[in-house]
Design goal:
Blueprint (H helix, E strand, L loop, with lengths): L1 H25 L3 H17 L10 H22 L32 H16 L3 H12 L4 H8 L3 H22 L5
């Protein structure tokens, strides 16, 4: 038992940074990433006897972390926040705000404006409901194929396209409210 604790403590010292970097690349919030790394070490400690040493400890820990991240997103996805469609549609199903259909100005000559737009987009993505944010990140940011996203999230392709469409509308609205004010 003492040897087991010493080895786990050594792993914590050696591999915490690597695991945290991996977690940060997969989740947006640093606190969530730190919690996932902590959960990884707790799981490794409780299942230490199952470690067969057929791979390196770091590989084993990365595999545990990968499963923890999957569980994290699965829980968030299955407990979505409520989104009011009244922001976009009236009771007859028509657009409530026709400005959503307007064209945006082109600012390709202004790198600072482009940078501000990307910062605004990042903030807007983080304000999407969890289910939508996960889907947008998987499809657009990680550039995963639609069938892979559907499989990972356990949704039908029609649901994927509806989520992406509604996300784009909400992102556009958020950008229009937050980015154009900075120009």
């Amino acid at each position: 038992m003492k040897q087991e604790n010493e080895e786990i403590n050594k792993w914590i010292e050696l591999y915490s940074g690597s695991l945290l970097n991996r977690a940060l690349s997969m989740v947006a919030d640093k606190n969530d990433a730190m919690d996932l790394v902590q959960d990884t070490f707790m799981s490794a400690s409780s299942s230490y006897n199952n470690f067969k040493r057929q791979c390196t400890p770091l590989s084993w820990l990365h595999n545990i972390l990968k499963n923890k991240i999957s569980d994290f997103y699965r829980i968030q996805y299955r407990n979505p926040e409520v989104v009011s469609m009244s922001l976009f549609f009236d009771s007859s199903g028509s657009w409530t705000d026709n400005s959503v259909l307007n064209e945006w100005p082109q600012n390709s000559d202004n790198p600072e404006a482009d940078s501000t737009l990307l910062d605004t987009l990042d903030r807007c993505i983080e304000h999407l409901p969890n289910q939508w944010r996960i889907t947008v990140k998987r499809y657009y940011i990680e550039q995963k194929k639609a069938d892979k996203v559907c499989h990972e999230l356990g949704i039908a392709s029609t649901n994927l396209w509806k989520i992406l469409q509604r996300s784009r509308m909400q992102l556009r609205k958020c950008i229009e409210l937050n980015w154009f004010d900075t120009l």
